Each structure stands twice: as structure tokens, then as C-alpha cells.
């Protein structure tokens, strides 16, 4: 098993065994994503850096106890339909 997979497995097992809340896991993910984003900041990896930044923003929201940004898209008022523009 690769080192990265082993580390991920250890984190997952520790998360299951402890009383760690999702916000602490999100805070950890945020720290890792920020470091990775800085690593990918050159011109060749600009879009990858952007995507990692978006994931970091979501992790930060969750770490602060805010709802997921995805929740904004899943909750639409009943009877409201989305029309396609052509």
C-alpha cells in the first residue's frame, strides 16, 4: 500500500474510533488543501489550483459550522421549475 493510502486509511480509522466532529475533519482537510493549493500555484497548474481552492473554501465553511454550499443548490421551493435558456 502506498504511503498516501496508508496515511489516509489511518486518518479514516482514527476518525471512526474517536469522537471527532465533522468540523474538525473539515478543518484538517482545509489545512491540507491550502498547502496543496500553494504547491500548485504556478501557471501550468493554475486551473488545478483554482479547483483545490474551491474545495478548500467548502472545507472552511464546514469547519466553521456553516452548511455546505451544495445545500443551496438542492433546496428549491416546491412548484418552482428551472427553465432552460436556449
How is this structure best described in words?
The protein is built from four helices and no strands. The longest helix has 18 residues, at 22-39. The chain is mainly α and 86 residues long. The chain is globular. It has helices at 3-17, 22-39, 46-63, 71-74. 64% of the residues lie in helices and 0% in strands. Helix 2 packs antiparallel against helix 3.
Features:
mainly alpha, 64% helix
Distance between the termini: 50 Å
The SSE order reads HHHH
Q: How many beta strands in the DSSP annotation?
A: 0
Structural class designation:
mainly alpha
- The fraction of residues assigned to DSSP E strands is under 5%
Helix content: 55-70%
Q: What is the overall number of helices? A: 4
Mean pLDDT: 79
- Poorly predicted residue ranges: none
User: Biggest β-sheet, characterized?
Assistant: none
Shape: globular
- Output the radius of gyration: 17 Å
What topology does this entry show?
Layout: H1 3-17, H2 22-39, H3 46-63, H4 71-74
Quick recap:
This protein is mainly α and 86 residues long. 64% of the residues lie in helices and 0% in strands.
